[in-house]
Write a structure and sequence with these properties.
The chain is of the alpha+beta class and 125 residues long. The protein has three helices and five strands. Helix 1 runs antiparallel to helix 2.
Amino acid sequence: MLSDQMLIELGAQVIADEEYDGHDWEGIALVIQIEPRQRLFGYMYLPGGDWTVACPALDGVLDKALALAEAMRADGRGAWKACLLRISRAGMRLAVEFEAEDPARWNITPGNLSQRVEELRPLIP
């Protein structure tokens, strides 16, 4: 399906972004919201367990995500409002979750930051 290929391309675009290129990271978590507003937020997980805020360039990733959402609808997979990409460097594994009902599902607040960053952490062998 076209949407499967587009998802792989989206993951490749994220890890090729200058935000991550040249850094020693073990995992990346990126939340892409397309409704009710378009935005990205994410984290880069470092060896030893530390993490830092890290997001790729908005325009390219958002354009690819919007095209993916449209292709998924065309493939009969349904609409989504937000998605969570988790990338593990070991084996270059990509896991994705889509949220159709609650676009705020993965939102970060000052009160949930520590908990949410750990919830979003990719499985790192």
